[in-house]
């Protein structure tokens, strides 16, 4: 009587995952093992359950790992994987360096100001993400606001190229993902009792030492959450690099888009997606192990 | 030779000077005076308790001693030196926090080592001191646990060990036992006393539990609204309270208001509205005839009997007839409420010295309540 709702509640998220993640992901895996074809849908083989056992066996036999081999053979692909990881790592590091002090300052504000600060962090979400990126394009373009100001102040003599550079992309990434870094950091930092810092000082640690010995280690879970929350989506980011970065090198999201929409090669696009997921699972597993170790405590 | 004399004189002077001197210290939060012109001397090696109701400024005073708050006025002298400009991490004072404030990410051992490492002790010394502290608070087996793997009582010991590890001149304890249950609290009180005697460290403990203050402290400072009402040894505080407020705050008391009618060197006669005329011992400071006073009598100093005491023993005693209006059996004691025929209500407690009480009083029983003039304390009103 009592256990049934509880069991249902614990099954529900699993069911959700199964229905909306695992099943579709199964399709993607299957497509990644197929070959591109000029057809509808644009790949072969197709599984037709009505065609009988023999046909099904033949379809299975037609699946191959060729697409994955291609991914490793052509340096276009692994270059864009590497670029994605490098960009995500750099952006995440920047986000942490900028987000931590902000979250720290927020957590130390008087209580009544904290809610307001939180609002200020979240407010940008109220405007469409695309509009905000287009606003940046406006600011950064040749005759944009930034160049006008710089020229007006005579800091530069000719307009600077901002748009379509890696700097512009970094700016866009940091700007867009900052709340995802700040919020988990703020959540952990604001939970650290001030008395711990006082205890540290009472025991002879200067305020700076107290920060490194108490606040920093206690905020590690927030750092982990913020880093993952930024790093993983940035690796697969498409819009920001597409709109703000130059076209000379691509992130994996752009490559994927190209394969899917321009080349109409669904199988290679799917293989890219499957490999991306595998790559992203690694840091996730590492983080989980870290958290489990912390929970278990001990030595 | 003269040199030698000079140093012993200096040492003598130092031993007589208080370890801690608080001079007219005031602390305001906004317009509110949390500590209001408080002065106090605490001698080296003393176990001092600050007792007072919630919000009277005990924690604020302690935080000023530790350096977390700065006084708006007045001075705090530690060993004769003004510590106003000394930051918390440089004061030879350690604090045991109200919620222990153990570092959750560090083991018991690392918690205790925290201060030792900051003080720059060598590795071997740190190790030895940790072992010593763990033995002191009897936690040897738990060195590698984290705080969340300890019981409340064990956490309390870790906090104590951590605060004592640096061998401070002055240890501040903010309600160190408030989170423990009664039994554990009482045994920990005894341990604290023993520890303090053994180490000779000066302890200042904050509590709002008067039994605790009485049990552990050599002297108690009773605080009310940011001021010290009285500073005295436990017995003096209880038997000779300086004010009606202290009398009522520390223990139970019957208060009878009246005016002074007569005065001779041995006895003071006080006329009360609802307990007729009382004969009481004269207070130390002179009171004027006709001045308004309160007479305080502790409930255990009131005797009850069916008939009054025999005539010659009763000479000079205060005796009143009354009716038992309420009683509660408390195990070791029974507390009676007696409505006097004269109008006043007195509370009296009698020790239950035998298992079966033949001479028990029941509700509605006519009794005689009597008490000695020497047990009455006259307080200005
Ligand atoms: N930082 C602060 N800001 C404003 N008011 C404060 C602050 N700290 C303490 N107070 C006020 O000062 C008064 C004394 O507080 P304090 O904490 O010293 O009381 P306490 O005697 O320790 O009480 P308790 O027994 O409840 O711990 C209280 O009225 C409290 O509200
Ligand atoms: Mg307090």
TrEMBL record, chain B:
Q: What class of enzyme is it?
A: translocase
Coiled-coil stretches noted in the UniProt entry, renumbered to this chain: none
Give every ABC transporter domain span. Answer: 20-250
- EC number(s) in its UniProt entry? 7.6.2.11
Gene Ontology molecular function: any one: ATP hydrolysis activity
Q: Which reaction does it catalyse?
A: ATP + H2O + polyamine-[polyamine-binding protein]Side 1 = ADP + phosphate + polyamineSide 2 + [polyamine-binding protein]Side 1
Q: Which InterPro entries match?
A: AAA+_ATPase, ABC_SmlMolc_Importer, ABC_transporter-like_ATP-bd, ABC_transporter-like_CS, Mo/tungstate-bd_C_term_dom, P-loop_NTPase, PotA-like, Transp-assoc_OB_typ2
Q: Name one GO biological process term.
A: putrescine transport
Q: Which GO terms describe its cellular component?
A: ATP-binding cassette (ABC) transporter complex
Q: Which keywords label this protein?
A: ATP-binding, Cell inner membrane, Cell membrane, Membrane, Nucleotide-binding, Translocase, Transport
Transport in keyword set:
yes
- TM spans (from-to): none
Q: How does it assemble?
A: The complex is composed of two ATP-binding proteins (PotA), two transmembrane proteins (PotB and PotC) and a solute-binding protein (PotD).
What the record says about family reads: Belongs to the ABC transporter superfamily. Spermidine/putrescine importer (TC 3.A.1.11.1) family.
Q: What does this protein do?
A: Involved in beta-(1-->2)glucan export. Transmembrane domains (TMD) form a pore in the inner membrane and the ATP-binding domain (NBD) is responsible for energy generation. Part of the ABC transporter complex PotABCD involved in spermidine/putrescine import. Responsible for energy coupling to the transport system.
NCBIfam families named in the record? potA
Q: What is this protein called?
A: Spermidine/putrescine import ATP-binding protein PotA
Q: Which organism is it from?
A: Rhodopseudomonas rhenobacensis
